[in-house]
Amino acid sequence: MRFMYIVTSSQPPRPPTPALMEAMGKLAEREIKAGRMIDTGGLLPVAMGAQVRITDGKLNVIDGPFVETKEMIGGYAIFELRSKEEAVAAAVEFMQLHKEHMPGWDGTCEVRPFATPGVDGACQVDVSALA
User: Fold this and answer.
1) CATH fourth-level superfamily of 2-116
2) Buried/exposed 70-107: b ≥16 CB within 10 Å, e otherwise
């Protein structure tokens, strides 16, 4: 199963410590070599981004920063793992690195399975409804 980890924090953005970067680099190298980690990355500040919204049937593009942002997505990772339990265990290990190397930082690592069309009912279209 493929999982995405989404790391968020409600604290003001600050760069990871060198110790955290080194620890995450070692973890990523191990997981990539094992064939479990597919992709990972940090995200630049919301001031550099944009949102494309549909509100009341109208499409709008809004440049960052976004006033209503309460939690910032700081990064993500994509893994190929056997189960949700394995995905949660790996996320606990990842967040433990933050606890050890960035004291005082509060955040969340959300673990979300990818939808697999035809396997878990995701993204399926009822063609009889289209007729």
Assistant:
1) Dimeric alpha+beta barrel (3.30.70.1060)
2) eebebbbbebebeeeeebeebbeebbebbeebbeeeeb
Contact predicate 5/79, CB 8 Å: yes
Instruction: For residue 103, give the amino acid letter.
Output: P
pLDDT tens-digit readout, 89-108: 999 999 999 999 999 999 99
Our separate counts of H helices and E strands in the chain read: 3, 6
Q: Would you kindly state where each structural domain of the chain is located, as residue ranges?
A: 2-116
pTM score of the predicted model = 0.79
- Cβ atoms 2, 35 nearer than 8 A: no
108-113 and 58-63 strand pairing:
unpaired
What's the pLDDT at 123?
59
